[in-house]
Design goal:
By secondary structure, the protein is mainly β. The protein is built from no helices and 5 strands. Bound molecules: zinc ion (ZN).
Amino acid sequence: MPATDGPFECDSCGTTVAFEDARRTKTMGGLDPTKWQTLCCPNCGTRLQTVYVGD
Ligand SMILES: [Zn+2]
């Protein structure tokens, strides 16, 4: 299971993004959106990490 506490470093623009600052989007690939969300960089929109947000 991936770590969900961050912070995450954006490979694209180098911004360090705190978990609560990341943009959250639905995952691609049909994962359950109530359990998995994709975190995106608020600065450039690059996908940072897909995290498990369910129980
Ligand atoms: Zn970025």
